[in-house]
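Case study 2.
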Amino acid sequence: MAVLRPAGDFDRSYEQDMAIIRQPWQWVLLAVALALLCWMPQWGNAYVTAVINQIGYTVIALQGLNLLTGYTGQISLGQAAFMMVGGYASGLLSIHLNFPIYLSLPFGALITGLVGLLFGLPSLRVKGFYLAMATLAAQFVIPWFSRQPFLEAYLGGTAGFIRIPPVVLFGINFGEQSNFVYITVLVMLITTLFTANITRTRLGRALVAIRDNDLAAELLGVNLFTYKLRAFFLAALLAGIAGALRAHSERGVGTEFGYSLEISILLLGMLVIGGLGTNLGPFLGGIFVILLDDFAIWVGGFLAHTFPAQSAQLESSFRPIFFGLVLVLFLIYEPRGMAYRWMLMKAGWRLRPFAR
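Prediction:
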C-alpha cells in the first residue's frame, strides 16, 4: 500500500513563510524535547545536571560569537574575557545592589556589550589576522585590569575571585545546579529566538553582506563601521549573559577560573565544528565538543592507568592533542561543519527515493 506524503510546504501568508517551526509534528517534537530536558535534572545525577548547564551557557556564548564571526566574518579571540566581564558585572550588582537575577543578568550583559564596543573599534581599520590580534588584547587587558589594587575590594584582588549569593526567585532557592539549570535553559531559548530573528532582519542581511564582500556592501549603502560595532556589541552582550549564568550557577567568578585564552580558542573551535553562519551550529558544536572533552578526559585517565610510566604525560597532554586532531579532521573532511551535513541529510530525505 502506497504511503501518501506531502509534496512540499506551500506558504499562503507572510507568517507561514517566516515561521521557524513549520509542521505540527515539529511542535510536538519540541514539546517532548523540552519536557525531557526539564525532567532530566531531577532524574539524572550531578554530572548530567552540570553538563546540561554547561551546554546551556556555552551555546549562548557561541550564539554571540556566531553573529560576529559566522555572519559578519570578524574573527574574535576574546569571547571568554567578555564572559568574565558579564560574570563580574552581574555578580557585583547582586552583591552590592541586591539586584535579583532578572535585573542583574540584563544589566550585566549591557555592561559587557559596552566593553565589547571598545574592542570593536579597530574593526574598521583592520581585518582578518590583524583583527584577531586586536581582539586578543581583550583576553589580556581585561584580566589584568581586574587585578588592579583600586578594584581589590570589589573583584577579589590578586586572587580575582568573588563569591555570589544563591539565586532566590519567588521563594525558590536556585542555588543548586539542579534548580538553576531551568533558568539557563529558559534564557537559552530566549537567546535562540533572538539570534534566529536577527539573522532574518535588515541587520542580519547587512552582516552577511559585510562577511561576503565588505567593499560591495559599502557600495550598496551599508555603513561598515556601524554594523561591525553592532556585531561586536551583540557578541559581547550574549557572552555577558553566558558569563553571568555561569557565575550564578557556580556561585562565584574569578580571573583564573575558566576564562583564559584557551577557552576563547575552544569556543571558536566549537563554532567551526558546529558550522559557521548557521543557527544550528552553536548547538551542534557546543554539545559535541563538551561531550567529546569529557570522553577525552576519560580516555586519558584510562590510558594513564594502563600505562603508569607515562601517566603524567597522558593526563596532561592527551586532551588537547585529541581535540586538536578532531578539529583538523573536521577542517579537512567537513569544513562547513556539522550543520551543513545535517542540511544535506534533510535534503536527501526530502528528495527520497531520488536522493542519490
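Confidence is low (pLDDT under 50) at residues 1-5.
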